[in-house]
């Protein structure tokens, strides 16, 4: 059965101007902690406003390539507003999300027009190529923040300290910057674990042809999804209830674990399991964070997973990070970057706006987790995508 409801979009507002050309304003200097999606997008937005940006990244040569992601239409719009090119060449269209029972029989088909399947390394590559020439990318491991003696904060490494007019914390789920600013904030307990792999399989990618498929068994707390990406690659992600299934502890245990829990479900998955290898598999201990009271303090602002780690059920993590970057640039446009008062006003406006916009995604992600863990969930299938549900599900 196909849902005809239009998806709700938690992305950019049409009234916001695109960040497409350098602006003339009093930009200051910014240190961006983390060179992932959030950090790179923020650097693009700020540099085009005249800010001098330096990105501190632990892995500047991109050894950690990651796997794939489903980018909703709002995320694609954000990439376009950032001025990125060759988006289509780095992705594949995903127009629907199909839910199936474990035996392969269909449960529900949800329309998600304008969405894209992308390998994370391809998205990071697009963002890196779009960086203005003025942006510096440096190797640096940040261990926290400390007061700079001038009413703000400075970045602290193992053997160094650096000041800036603006510090952007884009250092991920386990953010050292967030711990410095909000020491009492704690990630929520893990209730669902996700195991992600990818494989080169042009035939399977063609069979999926524009649709992400997810096979689930609510009675056992198990699900396995398949996402097509460019170049014939397919991302396979297994989700399982943490309290019911012990995660594999070693790389050689990954494929046997998947075969044990998903073998015999249906011929399509059996074929996938035969071709999987454990190389570069990623075990994701999914968690989120109760909303912070605000997303900035002094001259420091949080973006992406540092500010709001989202559960994977939302498929909104990357899109939310891109919108953070656009919103921050919008609020800082015209502000004197060397004026602590003007920077603080802009960051306060960013914090207020993004806090309100992100709260529904946190709630929907938790509701979807509850639905996944509920053995009776098969009686009421919902799209496991926050912002795309045709109807609300119960909170958990």
Descriptive report:
This protein has helices spanning 37-47, 73-81, 120-129, 176-181, 202-208, 254-262, 267-275, 317-332, 340-373; strands spanning 2-3, 29-33, 52-57, 68-71, 92-101, 106-119, 136-139, 142-147, 153-157, 161-162, 166-169, 192-200, 211-217, 222-228, 233-241, 282-285, 296-297, 300-302. It is an alpha/beta fold. The chain has a domain at 22-93 and 120-187 and 289-373: FAD/NAD(P)-binding domain, CATH 3.50.50.60. Strands 1, 4, 5, 6, 12, 13, 14, 15 and 16 form a nine-stranded mixed beta sheet that branches. Strands 7-3-2-11-18-17 form a six-stranded mixed beta sheet. Strands 8-9-10 form a three-stranded antiparallel beta sheet. The longest helix has 34 residues, at 340-373. The protein is globular.
